[in-house]
Design a protein that fits this description.
single chain; alpha+beta; TolA/TonB C-terminal domain; two-stranded antiparallel sheet; 3 helices; about 30% strand; elongated
């Protein structure tokens, strides 16, 4: 058996320095960011409705989505989080769920822990901020911001 961190995600790569975090936005910046994401989500809904109506008009029914295709910004690289030394010594395991906003270029611009053990939260947040995603586009190939959620599983195996 081995000691370490198991990351449940689509892609695992990179290394991590826990001391590096993106700058946390102030309340005004966060409100503006959340409004922008909501506007982009409405644009996606309108785009999907337009595509569905076009498919019904052309084929008599909406076409199924392509299996295996990532419609919501595929991960390019998901950073493996640092397993805290104190957790190793005490053989502590647990999950942390992070919800993040990804900008038009695929960078995480805001992340917060929505569930998880306190000892792993800082490491999971740092890993989330270091991860990269394929930009998500809507009708007209306009790049948009979007929400992404990832679950990090920290496991100590003896």
């Amino acid at each position: 058996m081995r000691k370490g961190v198991l990351l449940i995600a689509l892609v695992i790569s990179g290394s991590l320095s826990v001391s590096v975090f993106a700058q946390k936005p102030n309340k005004e910046e966060l409100a503006k960011l959340l409004t922008s994401v909501a506007d982009d989500e409405r644009a996606v809904v309108a785009c999907e409705r337009q595509i569905r109506e076009q498919q019904i008009k052309e084929f008599g029914k909406p076409l199924p989505r392509i299996s295996g295709h990532c419609f919501s910004g595929c991960p390019i690289s998901v950073t493996k989080p640092h397993y805290p030394e104190i957790a190793k010594r005490n053989r502590i395991s647990g999950d942390v769920v992070v919800r993040a906003i990804v900008d038009e270029e695929g960078n995480v611009v805001f992340a917060k822990v929505i569930k998880g053990r306190g000892i792993f939260r800082a490491s999971a947040l740092a890993a989330a901020y270091h991860s990269r995603y394929q930009p998500k586009v809507t009708c007209g190939d306009r790049k948009i911001k979007f929400w992404w959620q990832i679950r990090y599983h920290f496991s100590y195996d003896m």
